[in-house]
Amino acid sequence: MAEPRPGLALRFQRRFLAARPLRSLPWPELEQSLRTAPDSALLADILHQTILHPLCVKYPPSAKYRRCFLTELIKKLESTAAEPLDELYEALAAVLKEEEESTHCYKNYLLPSGDCVSLCESTALISGGTTGLLTWEAALHLAQWALRNPGLFRGRTVLELGSGIGFTGIAICKSCQPRTFIFSDCHPRVLRQLGENIQLNGFTPEPDGSWSIQTESQGQEVKGQSCQNPKVIVAELDWSSATEKQLLALRADVVIAADVVYDPEIILALIGVLQKLSSSRADRKAPEVFIASTVRNPDTYQLFQAELDKAGIRWQVIPAHSSCNFLYDVQPDVTILQLFI
Questions:
Q1: pLDDT given at position 70
Q2: Residue 30: per-residue pLDDT
């Protein structure tokens, strides 16, 4: 059996630790060496002198670079008669997990005023078991519609259901001068990212505590408060367990939501919250409700409309612009409904 070519693992190590492009590494030499010496010795040597090298463990290249590197190694392994190397697959699994946990980026959305909304977003559609860590199209459309109708929000208390990471609400806070804006969601990781994004944009959420108690007295707290600096609250609101008393304490004048009609299983819970908002108004006027939806599955959207009818909630389609300034590629089918609860 031929011996691995001397120095090949060392050259891989030097080029890898120097963060040279993958294409500069001696892949052809590696594949030839593996073909002439079909065992795992050379591959193991390269692995331990690159990915598993103490210097790489202490100062690792990016997860993407390491994933590409390991993937190429696996390709070379599979193209030869070399036996599988468990450490190689374990290292790839670890990098993939790390990449999944760290897939985020910062985005800036320019508002018509010249201000911008800065957000930390996930780069994956599903992250941490939720789809709420990135901005969806309906949120962009709803924000654009709100910015064209600022009078609806000026000096009023706004409750957003399913705020996600906060784009629509932050845009309204920056441009529409609400008195109070209540962001709400139920996923812990989404709420954490939402709070960070709110602070990233210069707003300070109310201190931790019972949001129902905080908002019960908000009418007195914000009386005479400048709308230029709205009061911001982040509420953990589970539609399935929210009570009429909690919703009454919010004292919402306007209720908005974007991309919350995507799963038939949550439609009834959403309808339930709307009904509680209606019955909890006491002697106050019912809030105005606007829900923006990207119509991905017509059956799901029609089910939502049917459940609204069944619950006695009237609705009408709000004319909206066919294009959204915040989107630069495909314009999805987005509809905004005004509900009368």
A1: 80
A2: 74
The sign of the CA dihedral 170, 171, 174, 179 is negative
Cα separation, 151 vs 257, in Å, equals 18
214, 247 Cβ separation under 8 angstroms: no
Lookup: tokens for 39: 């065992």
CB of 287 closer than 8 Å to CB of 281: yes
Cβ-Cβ contacts under 8 Å for 266 (sequence gap 6 or more): 239, 260
- pLDDT attached to residue 214: 46
Q: Which amino acid is at 39?
A: D
Please give the pLDDT value at position 100: 60
The answer for residues whose C-beta is within 8 angstroms of residue 60's C-beta and 6 or more apart is: 66
227-248 in b/e form (b: 16+ CB < 10 A) is beebbbbbbebebeebeeebbb
Contact 255, 247 (CB under 8 A): no
What's the pLDDT score for residue 223?
43
Q: Strand runs (DSSP E) across the chain, as ranges?
A: 104-110, 116-122, 157-161, 180-185, 231-236, 254-258, 288-294, 314-318, 334-340
Q: Which DSSP letter does residue 1 get?
A: -
CA distances from 229 to 24, 164, 200, 310 (A): 54, 22, 15, 40
Query: What are the C-alpha distances in Å from 206 to residues 140, 194, 214, 215?
Result: 25, 13, 8, 10
**Burial class (CB within 10 angstroms; exposed 0-12, middle 13-18, buried 19+) of 223:** exposed
Question: Which class for 307: exposed (0-12), middle (13-18), buried (19 or more C-beta within 10 A)?
Answer: middle
Work out the number of other CB atoms within 10 angstroms of the CB of residue 326.
18
pLDDT < 70 stretches in the chain: 1-7, 14-21, 23-24, 37-40, 55, 57-60, 62, 78-85, 98-102, 124, 126-130, 207-227, 280-284, 320, 327-331
